[in-house]
Structures are given as structure tokens and as C-alpha cells.
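Teaching note: in complex prediction, the entire set of molecules is handled at once rather than each chain in isolation. The prompt given to students was simply: 'Predict the structure of this complex.' The entities are:
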Amino acid sequence: DAGVIQSPRHEVTEMGQEVTLRCKPISGHNSLFWYRQTMMRGLELLIYFNNNVPIDDSGMPEDRFSAKMPNASFSTLKIQPSEPRDSAVYFCASRSSGQGEQPQHFGDGTRLSIL
Amino acid sequence: DQQVKQNSPSLSVQEGRISILNCDYTNSMFDYFLWYKKYPAEGPTFLISISSIKDKNEDGRFTVFLNKSAKHLSLHIVPSQPGDSAVYFCAAIGLEGSQGNLIFGKGTKLSVKP
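The expected output is the structure of the full assembly:
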């Protein structure tokens, strides 16, 4: 079975540019999460969706960050304009809201470097 | 203010011995805990979980213990193998509960030496 698929795996761009990260959750999963990992703060939740609807975006750092989930099989995280402090690894995860607590399944992340 | 703390950034263990990874939390309302394992350049992989109504959960070489009164959980790996070398994250389900909102510790890097 395909896991969570993220693209690109690596992104290097200059500050001020728009960056779009993409995620395809596991088929049948109805919750999707975006995380950011940095050395200083570890893994932080940015936003999560349930049935394509954003539930909590309180982790989004500022208005430069936005996330969408137009359908059950695709989500994007956009940064515009990007800044060097946005450099981090961004993970997408999905889970099923089946019976009991279902674990989140993570993609392999996008390593973002803003020069 | 960290709600889930892993105070040991690294741990080194000899192959065949027991690895014990510790995790403390501050919020007594957390009711579900998970351990994830992460290799370099990969995403975290779910390892084992425990509900707050239990004090132990075992899966093969992996056992998680929960001490609610101390707000402490630990992951035991017996026997440790070189392939277990990875970063281990402890996570708790946030107050949103059924939405599966995880709060992670900063991780402990385990090195198992042959």
C-alpha cells in the first residue's frame, strides 16, 4: 500500500519566492496534518484537516503560511513570501478516524532551504 | 512551555542489552500516548501506543510502561539490535482527543552498538 506521499523531497529557493509543498494522504484516511521540524522546536503541528475542512490552524506561524485541501487526496502548504527562518523539514501525516485511536502515518518530508 | 518532554537527547546501548527511553508529560488530561521511530531522511513511523487506562502494553521486543501518578512513560526495547538505532519520539494526544492531535517530545537518539 502506498503511504503518505510528499513532494518535492527537497526545495532550495531564494527568500521572497513562493514555495508550495504537496501531500497525498493515504487513501481512505480522513484527517490530514502538516508539521514542521526544526532543531530548536522539534516537531510542531501547523494545521490539521478533518474531512477536508481545516479544524485548527493555530500552529501556523503567520499569514505568510496557508494550507488547502481541495479534495480528500491532496493538500498543499504554501509559503509566500518565504524567509530564511522558514528553513525546516515539513511533514505531512494522515490518519483514519476508525474505531479507537488510530496512529498518524507520516510522509518522508520536504526539506526546505530558503537562502 | 513543553507539555511532552524527553530529557535525554541521546542514549547509547550495547547490542543485546535493554534500551530504556523516558518521557515525561505535564498535562494530566492526556489520555493516549504513542511512540514513533524516525530514521534519517524518513518520516516518523508509528511504533507502539498505550491508553491511559493501562499501565503496560507489549509488542514483541517493545514494551511501553505508563505511570500516570508520575506523569511518566517509558519505552523498553529488549533485546536491542543495531537496526533499532534511530530517533525515538514520544507523543501524547492533545486535548482535542478524537481529532488525533499529537504533541511530540523533542526525541531521543538511540545508538545500538554491535
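Point out the following to students. The mean pLDDT of chain B is 92. Chain B touches chain A at residues 32, 34, 36, 41-46, 49, 51, 89, 93, 96, 98-107 (CB under 8 Å).
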